[in-house]
Design a protein that fits this description.
This protein has two helices and five strands. With 80 residues, it is of the alpha+beta class. The protein has a single domain, classed as Alpha-Beta Plaits (2-Layer Sandwich), CATH 3.30.70. The longest helix has 13 residues. The radius of gyration is 12 Å and the shape is globular.
């Protein structure tokens, strides 16, 4: 699978944020960001992609815990 809407089990934190989405594909990542923006969900993005070789790393989206459920539902609905 090219992207993951992460389930509740995996709670990786970026400071006080929870990861809700990751992908290796920049186009899918951009779509996920639009979904969150359209639903008014504030998020932070992080990329661990290697700048020379785009085969390593991920694009990741993080939200605060108060928006976690809404973000997961919105992303799951968008990527059925």
């Amino acid at each position: 699978m090219l992207h993951q809407v992460l389930k509740k089990k995996k709670r990786v934190k970026l400071l006080d944020k929870i990861i809700v989405f990751k992908s290796k594909e920049p186009f899918i990542f951009a779509q996920a960001k639009l979904v969150l923006e359209d639903h008014g969900i504030p998020f932070q993005e992080r990329t661990t992609m290697d700048s020379m070789f785009n085969a390593f790393g991920n694009y990741e989206l993080y939200v605060s815990s108060e928006f976690e459920n809404q973000a997961r539902k919105s992303l799951a609905d968008a990527f059925r």
